[in-house]
Write a structure and sequence with these properties.
The chain is mostly helical. It has one domain. Helix content is about 70%, strand content about 10%. The protein has 5 helices and 2 strands, in the order H-H-H-E-H-H-E. The chain has a two-stranded antiparallel sheet. Helix 4 runs antiparallel to helix 5.
Length: about 120
């Protein structure tokens, strides 16, 4: 079922465009040494944005002070805006019954977009 939902997500839920945007942002951020950790987070979100069904977000127990600082910087400069865009997309998709599963995936992506450092994308249990 997750495979079918992921295929529908790529076609109708905007998954391909979301993954492409995150991947391009990650490439641009990786052009500078300071931006590499932020680019890696973009690649993590690109992977989840392409195939979100059957995946979950978990806290990384080994995350430390660097993750906290990265989250503060990410939240201030990008996280809020990315979160709001995912919320707007989720609201638009939730209008129809067929769009509700896709809206839930946008909410999952929005939560990760707020503070991506110190989180892992794992298979859903």
């Amino acid at each position: 079922m997750n495979f079918l939902l992921n295929v529908l997500w790529v076609i109708f839920g905007g998954g391909f465009l979301i993954a492409l945007e995150y991947a391009l942002a990650g490439l641009v951020l990786c052009l500078t040494i300071v931006g590499i950790p932020f680019g890696i987070q973009c690649f993590k979100m690109a992977g989840l944005g392409l195939f979100p069904f059957g995946k979950d977000i978990r806290e990384d127990p080994g995350a430390g002070l660097g993750s906290g600082l990265g989250n503060v910087l990410w939240f201030l400069f990008a996280g809020v805006w990315i979160f709001l865009s995912h919320i707007a997309l989720a609201a638009g998709l939730a209008v129809t019954i067929i769009g509700i599963p896709f809206a839930l995936q946008h909410l999952k992506l929005g939560v990760l977009a707020l503070t991506p450092f110190g989180k892992r994308v794992v298979p859903a249990a």
